[in-house]
Amino acid sequence: MWLYNLGISLYTGGIRLAASWHGKARLWSEGRRNLFARMEAAIRPSDRIVWVHAASLGEFEQARPIIERLRAEHPEYRILLTFFSPSGYEIRKKYEGADYVFYLPADTPSNARRFLDIVRPEIAIFIKYEFWINLLAELRRRKVRSYIVSAIFRRNSVFFRPYGAMWRQALETFDTLFVQNDESKRLLSEIGFDNVVVAGDTRFDRVAQIAAAAQRVETIERFRGESRLFVAGSTWGPDEEILLPLVNANPEVKFVIAPHEMDEGRIARLLRETKGGAVRYTQCDAATRFDDVQVLVLDTMGMLSSVYGSATWAYIGGGFGVGIHNTLEAATFGLPIAFGPNYAKFKEARDMVSLGCAVSVRTADELAAWFTPLRDDEGALRRASRTAKDYTARNQGATGIILRSIFNS
C-alpha cells in the first residue's frame, strides 16, 4: 500500500511540475485547486447523493444513459459526476444531467476521507476501469453501496496476478460488478467473486439515444448533395495517410474527415492534397457552394455522431495508436466500418469483425480492397449495413438491468 501511495504522490507532483508547460497538466492541476472548498459550498448536507465517476469522455458516454434514466426515475437523489481527466471534465463540466460536476481529487488517504465527508454518497457508481485504492477502501469502511458498471476483465490484468492481492481486495468494495461479457464473469469467479452480473455495455443504450435524437446537419446535407458520403471519424495522422489515396481514387464519393485533434498541419495537408477540393467546416456558411469540393474537414467538436446519420460508410481513427475510438456511433446508423490494426481491446470491434460488418486494415491498399465491393455491390452494402444495425440493436438494455438491480436490491 505504501508503494501505491508513493506512486500517487509522485504522479501528483509530476503533474504539478508539468503544469507550467503542458496544457492538460495545467488543467488537471488548476481544476483541483480549492476543490474541497468548492464542493462544500455547492453540496448541501441534506442532499441524497448518487456519485457517478467517469475517468474521461468515453466513460462519460457509458455513464450518461445511467445518469439520465436515474434522474428521470429517482428524482429524490442528487447526482454528483466526477472526472479524472481534463478531456472529460472540460467538455462536460456544464452537463445539465448532473447536479454537481467536479474533478476527482488525487487518491491519497486524507483526500479520500475528506471527499467522502463532503459528499456522503448513498450510492457510488464507477464506470468501467476506475480502481482508486484509497477511495474504495474508504467506501468499504463506510459501507457505502458501491457498483462498477460496463466493466471488462482480461486474463493479463493485475487482479489475476500473484501480486494483485491489493487490487483483488479493492474489488470487494462493490456490491455488484456489472460486466460486459461472460469471460469477465468467469475470470472473476476464479478469484472468488460471485456477485457478478453480465449486463452488457451501456454504450449501446447511449448510441441508440444518439441515433433517435440525431438531427441532420444542413451544411453536411448540402455538401453531400446527390452523392454518397464516407465519414472518417476521430482520425490521426496514420489514419489520414491511408485515407488520402482512397479519397483521390474515388472522386464521385464525398468525404467528411473529422480529426481527433485540431492539428493545423494535418488539416492543411488534407486541404492541400485532396485533388477534388477540400474545405473546412468552420469556413462554410449558407452561401457556400460545394460543387468543386470533395472533402469537408470537420474542424469542430460535438457533431460527429449526427454526421454519421448522413453517411453510407465509415472509418474510425485511432487504430494505429493506443486503440480505436467509438465504433458504435457509426454502427448504430448501419454503417460498414473500417479501422486500423489496434482494436483487440474493444469487444464490440472484435464482434463486428467476426460478423463481417467491420474490418481492420493496415494499408491504403487494404482499405481500398474493403471499400470497393461495398461501393459497387448494393447487395453487399445492404448486408453489411443490416448486420451493423442489428448488432447494436440486440445489445441494448444494460442500463435497465443495472438500475433495476441497484434499486431493487
3D architecture notes:
The model has no long low-confidence stretch (mean pLDDT 94). The strands form two sheets. The chain has a seven-stranded parallel β-sheet, sandwiched between helices. The protein is globular. The chain has helices at 2-18, 23-31, 35-42, 57-73, 86-92, 109-119, 133-142, 165-171, 182-190, 203-213, 218-224, 237-249, 264-273, 304-307, 328-331, 347-355, 364-376, 378-394, 398-408, and strands spanning 49-54, 78-83, 100-103, 121-127, 145-151, 176-179, 196-198, 229-235, 254-259, 278-280, 295-297, 313-316, 337-339, 358-360. The chain starts with a helix and ends with a helix. α6 crosses α7 (133-142). It is 47% helix and 16% strand.
SSE diagram, text form:
Elements: H1 2-18, H2 23-31, H3 35-42, E1 49-54, H4 57-73, E2 78-83, H5 86-92, E3 100-103, H6 109-119, E4 121-127, H7 133-142, E5 145-151, H8 165-171, E6 176-179, H9 182-190, E7 196-198, H10 203-213, H11 218-224, E8 229-235, H12 237-249, E9 254-259, H13 264-273, E10 278-280, E11 295-297, H14 304-307, E12 313-316, H15 328-331, E13 337-339, H16 347-355, E14 358-360, H17 364-376, H18 378-394, H19 398-408
Parallel strand pairs: 1-2, 1-4, 2-3, 4-5, 5-6, 6-7, 8-9, 8-12, 9-11, 10-11, 12-13, 13-14
Helix pairs in contact: 1-2, 4-10, 4-19, 6-7, 12-17, 17-18
